[in-house]
Amino acid sequence: MSAETDYAAIAKSDPDVYGIICAEEERQHDTLELIASENHVSRPVRQAVGSVLTNKYAEGYPGRRYYGGCVNMDAIEELARQRAKKLFGCDHVNVQPHAGAQANAAVLLGVLQPGDTILSLDLAHGGHLSHGLKVNMSGLLYNIVGYQVDPKTEQIDYAEVRRLALEHKPKLLISGASAYPRTLDFSKFSEIAEEVGATHMADIAHIAGLVATGLHCSPVPTADFVTTTTHKTLRGPRGGMIMCKADWAKKCDSRIFPGSQGGPLMHCIAGKAVAFAEALKPEFKTYQEQILKNAQALGEGLESLGNRLVAGGTDTHLMLLDLRPAYPDVSGKNAELWLEQANIITNKNMIPFDERKPMETSGLRLGTPALTTRGLKEDHMKTVAGWIDQVLRAQGDEAVVAQVRGDVKTMCDQFQLP
Ligand code: DSN
């Protein structure tokens, strides 16, 4: 059975939904995807996620389920676990979190009592909402102390993190980010956590593919918990995962089920198993290396056109463009909109110490995982940097946007989606 066969069924039975799926396929084909957290999964991953495993309830864990008929659910979950352990070298893994936010919430529930203190990176400095945003459960239930990047280097100042940890004695120290372009020194975070008696949770959602292939240092040897999503650089299905030391295994599992989730999404767990096997292949490392080369090329291309990158550049798959020096009148909101009109997909993002509001922003976040999946290389990145610059300099001028959109379409036609 092929994906096309599945589409034939839905095309006949539900033209409305089928039409939207086709429109989205066309949009993805015709646009350059530069959102750092997105990717294009393989067909095998999509087939696993679209499989009959979606039909099954499997509350519990392999060998201890609350429903009958779980023989194949046990097999797939065990396979996903074994592959994840091999990929990251962790003691224990839970592959059931529906998403990264659920993985993080379960760790918080396992480690903290309401009112306890968490020390984590400010959202406005690259952190994540599940690390302590006031209106997220993390910020509603716990006392959040934020660390910020250094105003000069725009990088994490570990002496400042230590100072805050000594002052506030957090019960949980969170490392990891969703908009931080530089290497994270996870062993330094673990040292600080140990010094103040805190538990250390590292969230590697963005960089999981780099960590799995040894291209970014791994927190697995030193952190108590490592959480991730499976759909960013790791290029698996939408989902989450928790890795932890053996001592925390029982607590981790019980806070996912029954603590915060019901039945696991077994079709997504199957997709995770497929993606982990793909990530264990040598070519996945080559792919991650190309993501990094492409990020360097894109960053250099933008800098050569007079742009400023936050923190002086990138060590990873993503960069933050400070729009103010090259395009003083352009907000992140406008940049995102005009680039989308030119079929270049990005997201507005706060930059450290941003004076614009979160829905306006002075920054644009750019990442190379999806374009690299598509087969684009360093030379293409220079071209893409030029197109971004043309659209922003012209402040969305319709003729310039139309010209770039045409050029983007020509490039997209040369690079098929998986
Ligand atoms: N929304 C994700 C991102 O774009 O980084 C984080 O969850």
Structure report:
The protein is built from 16 helices and 15 strands. By secondary structure, the chain is of the alpha/beta class. The strands form 4 sheets. A 7-stranded mixed sheet has the order 4-10-9-8-7-5-6, with helices on both faces. It has a 4-stranded antiparallel sheet with strand order 11-12-15-14. It has a two-stranded parallel ribbon with strand order 1-13. Helix 1 (3-13) packs across helix 2 (15-30). It binds D-serine. D-serine binds next to loops.
| Helix percentage range | 40-55%
CATH superfamily of the largest domain: Type I PLP-dependent aspartate aminotransferase-like (Major domain)
Task: Give the tally of structural domains.
Answer: 2
Shape: globular
| Strand order in space, largest sheet | 4-10-9-8-7-5-6
Question: N-to-C terminal Cα separation, in Å?
Answer: 17 Å
Concise description?
This protein is α/β, with parallel strands linked by helices and 418 residues long. The protein contains 16 helices and 15 strands.
